[in-house]
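User: My collaborator sent over this chain with a note saying "see what the structure looks like." That's all I know about it. Can you take a look?
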Amino acid sequence: MMKRLLTSAACAAIAFTAPAAAQDVAIVNATVAKGDGSEPVAGSRVIVRNGTVSVVGPNAPVPANIPTIDAQGAFVTPGIVAAVTDLGLYDVGAVGASNDKSAGDARFNAALDVAPAINPSSQHVKVSRAGGVTRALVTPSHGNSLFAGQGAVIDLGEDPNAVMEAKAFQMANLGERGARLSGGSRTAAYVELENALREASAFASGSWEGEEALLTRADAAALVPVINGSQELYVEVERAADIRNVLGLKRTYPKLDLVLVGASEGWLVASEIAAARVPVIADALDDLPASFEQLGATQSNVGRMAAAGVKVAIGRMSGGTDGHPRSAAQFAGNLVALGKVPGASGLSWGQAFATISSIPAEIAGHGGKFGVLKAGAIGDVVIWDGDPLEVDSVPSRVFIAGIEQPLDNHQSELAKRYLDLDESQLPKAYDW
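Assistant: Without extra context I'll predict from the sequence alone. Here is the result:
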């Protein structure tokens, strides 16, 4: 579709000055997608006051003396929420000194907390922000245990205070990866899990075995919020049989607040997942099996689970070039396209956008706070130059908590650097 570009006058309405405080802004004449599963509405308005969405709608009154942007019909959405990602945990994946994704040599596992390692100045954060990502559920990678550690909810704003919620969830794996880390078999993984939860329960009750326990004191303490249900347990699992086993954990530990991650064969047990009211963070377009636990993978997985009543977000996009979080809108667009393929199951436009906005926020326990345009939500707002679910559309302006954000990054600067192909003065110098 033809891209809609804001006029220079409109862009000048609020010139980016990196303010320390949230801005008031009214965005009018916009095609607004609220992110709540509803379809976009043309001729609508979004008003943000003091960093919070004040009102949304076609007839939303514009307060006097508030800076106004005429979107000229452009799409306006909440920011994208990257679910289960490693944004901010590394700069160069192959350089160990810059990589804090996993701690395979550590004495601790469940106690690991990614929050102190988040680098808000990471180029991966900046690239994602330029792609419309405003919040992320950051998780550690597995090291030497089926427990990877505790993830955090962050914002991608250009400021040093990235962490919105530390120790937001615990990460575990009970599939092939968890089996390898536990001794080579799923039987060992479930014994390790059962022992860990039992020792955490003992720690909570004051009857922990101390030196005779397999868990460290720190790991046992870290799992107490999991067993009492105050901290979510994200479980990476793919095949249908493993999904059933994970759902069955609630029979022994009814307070477990479970989230399935991956679930490539989730469509085969969708009714059971829905009945258990366990949400899923799935890969968007798994098709051919990458392992034996994904033999039933299909691109219709997300659509079929959603149709069965499962709350599904799409995620597991890393900060690198392979499946970068900024590609989330493209994956969501493919789910819309699947709905037009005979025999396939996809999503409507509104449903698809919700899988990368309001639903991951709800899964993280922040439903209504971000990932949605509604009164009282944080003012994470993105103005796009076209349909955000089209591959050739990009954000023209991004606001996080009401503060307009810079969209420059290493990639954009390299593009400028090599736009001029004059080779008479090489190498070109950087500006910093």
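A starting point for your reply to your collaborator: The radius of gyration is 22 Å.
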